[in-house]
Design a protein that fits this description.
8 helices, 16 strands, eight-stranded mixed β-sheet
Length: 333
């Protein structure tokens, strides 16, 4: 915390610092009892009527009374990663977007409006990588109309927790009644350790998702639109570990998109009866080996917070969280 030359804690932030990353300490215990202090680090997203709002890395907003502050200062952006590939949010946002393309899109300034008949929020949400070229309220009116014309709810995908992410936009959406429905994380790691992790000799690789692959895919009744999304990306590969028996569904599947130095993994799924046998690692090893052959060196994937098993698997492979991303659904107004 900020300490003056006289050794006193000082509050060295003001409302003019909205939008900057700050670190604050506040008093949370009553003065006539044991004093307790709580530290909060994040982006200062508002300072109104004596109340600060700070958005943490995971997207949670913390409201703090100005009168409870005992120290505060502006701090540098989140420190550089100590392991795994180095990358900024804009690069990863573009790479992950190219790996899961909608069937229809339209530009609104630096925003991309994406639609795919409702197949996944990622393919049916706005990706705001800059300014929309209109005041926010007008831009959101355009967004609502565009998705309404297609019979879809309006979603905006945002990110928090890295340099260049959209904490301020998150706060502005929440002020306007937009509801955060889903939060997940994008993780990154080195590609070679994934390829070396398991013997992938029994994995079948294909350029398309055949009937066997789709039989294991968690989303049933996949439409032609969904197949277009699944097959989109610069260089797409599907992996299958065959099941036992002629008509058996695959024991495990996975998908990978190679895009320059990046390989993005998705849809890694294992027969529930065969879990904890390393099949997920086998699938990823096969896809990683092919991606290495195409010149990739870094890997990314997306995982939800409650998926404990997947997080343990990916952490063991050397992946770690880069930033959180969220989907906000339009409010009633």
């Amino acid at each position: 915390m900020e300490i003056s030359a006289a050794g006193r804690l000082e509050v060295r932030i003001t409302a003019a610092d909205v939008g900057k990353r700050v670190s604050v300490r506040r008093l949370t215990g009553a003065e006539d009892t044991t004093e307790k202090f709580t530290d909060t680090v994040g982006v200062l997203t508002s300072w109104d009527s004596g109340v600060l709002t700070i958005t943490r890395k995971g997207g949670e907003s913390v409201r703090i009374s100005e009168s409870s502050l005992v120290a505060g200062k502006v701090v540098p952006p989140a420190p550089a990663r100590r392991r795994g590939p180095s990358a900024g949010y804009p690069e990863l946002a573009h790479v992950s977007s190219r790996a899961w393309r909608p069937v229809e899109s339209e530009r609104l300034g630096a925003w991309e409006l994406r639609a795919a008949a409702g197949f996944t929020r990622r393919a049916n949400s706005v990706l705001p990588l800059g300014e929309p070229g209109l005041p926010l309220d007008e831009a959101l009116t355009v967004v609502r109309r565009w998705y309404g014309d297609r019979g879809l709810p309006a979603y905006v995908q945002t990110a928090t927790g890295a340099e260049g992410t959209q904490e301020l936009l998150c706060a502005e959406l929440e002020e306007r009644g937009w509801t955060r429905e889903v939060t997940a994380e994008l993780w990154v790691g080195g590609l070679a350790p994934v390829a070396d992790r398991a013997d992938a000799s029994g994995v079948v690789l294909s350029r398309s998702a055949d009937e066997a692959w789709l039989a294991r895919y968690q989303r049933k009744g996949v439409s032609e639109v969904a197949l277009k999304v699944l097959g989109s990306g610069p260089s797409v590969w599907f992996a299958t570990v065959p099941g036992e028996g002629t008509d058996a569904a695959p024991a495990a599947i996975g998908r990978c998109v190679v895009d320059g130095r990046w390989a993005g993994f998705a849809a890694v799924e294992v027969d529930p009866a065969l879990r904890r046998r390393g099949l997920g690692s086998v699938v990823m090893a096969a896809l990683a080996s092919r991606a290495l052959e195409e010149g990739a060196s870094a890997a990314w994937l997306q995982v939800e917070a409650e998926n404990v098993g997947a997080r343990a698997l990916y952490s063991g492979m050397g992946f770690s969280a880069h930033h959180a991303y969220h989907h906000y659904r339009e409010g009633s107004s």
